[in-house]
Amino acid sequence: MKEKIIAKATDMFLKMGFKSVTMDDIACEMCISKKTIYKFFSNKEALIEEGTAIVNNKINSLMDEVISKNYNAIEENFKIREMFKEMFQSLDHSPAYQLKKHYPEIWDKMMASKIEDCNEMFGQNISKGIAEGLYRDDVNIDVYIKFYYTLIFSINENTQLESEALLLEKEALEYHTRALATPKGIEELEKQLQTNYK
Q1: Model confidence band, residue 87 (pLDDT cutoffs 50, 70, 90)
Q2: What's the chain's Rg over C-alpha atoms?
Q3: Most buried residue, 9, 69, 76, 119, by CB count within 10 Å?
Q4: What Å distances lie between residue 17 and 44, 83, 184, CA to CA?
Q5: Count of C-beta atoms within a 10 Å radius of residue 36
Q6: 3-class DSSP assignment, residue 160
Q7: Looking at the domain assignment, is residue 42 inside a domain?
Q8: Which residues are CB-neighbours of 174 under 8 A, at least 6 positions away?
Q9: Which residues form the HTH tetR-type domain (predicted)?
C-alpha cells in the first residue's frame, strides 16, 4: 500500500503541483481514508520527499540506459535531453520550480545528491567526447561541468512553465556543446540539431 500511495501522490504532485495537492485529494483519488496515508507518512513533506527520491531514481536509471547504448558524447546528451522531454513535456508547471518555491528544504536535500550525480555524468561525457575527438582536449573539465549544471539548474529553479524550461534547456545544450566542440564536434552538433529540431 505504501508504494501505491507514493506512486499516486507523486503523479498528482507532478501534474497538479506540490502545493495544491492535499492529503485529502490523495485519499479521495485512491478511495482510501486519510488515516491510511498517515499510517505510512507522518505528514505531506515526508510523502513528497519519498516521491522525489523515487522520481530521481527513475531518472538515474533511464540516464544509465541511454549511456549504456554507447552513443557518441554529443548524441548521448541529445538522447538524455529527449528522455527528459518525454518525461515532463505533458506537465504545465515545472516540478523543480514548484518544489524549490514551496518546499525549499526538500529541494536543497535533493539538489545536494543531484549535483554529485551530475558531476559524475557530465565529467564522463566530457572525457568521452575528448577521446572521440568531438570535444577540445584543452578544456578544464571541472569548470565546464560547473558551468553546465549551473545553467541547467538555474533554468529549472527559475522557470515556472515546463514548456519554457524545455526550450531553454535545448539552448543551454547547444551553447554548452559549441563551447566544448572541435570542428568535428560542430559537425556532429549540427547533425543532431537537424535530426532533433527540424
Answers
A1: confident
A2: 19
A3: 9
A4: 13, 21, 43
A5: 13
A6: coil
A7: no
A8: 189, 193
A9: 1-59
**Are 91 and 14 spatial neighbours (Cβ–Cβ below 8 Å)?**
yes
Print the domain residue range for 56.
52-196
- pLDDT of residue 180 exceeding 60, the answer is yes
Domain count, the chain: 1
Helices (H) and strands (E) in the chain, counts: 10, 0
- Residues 83-98 have a mean pLDDT of 77
Let me know if residue 30 belongs to a domain. Answer: no
Q: Residue 167 corresponds to which cell in the numbers above?
A: 526550450
> 130: which strand partners?
none
Of the candidates 98, 100, 91, which has an alpha carbon nearest to the alpha carbon of residue 162?
91
In a domain, 41, yes or no: no
**Using an 8 Å Cβ cutoff, are 164 and 85 in contact?**
no
Amino acid of residue 109 = K
Q: What is the pTM of this model?
A: 0.81
Question: In angstroms, how far is CA 182 from the centroid of its own chain?
Answer: 27
Contacts by 151-156, CB closer than 8 A, 24 or more apart: 151/175, 151/176, 152/118, 153/111, 153/114, 156/94, 156/96, 156/97
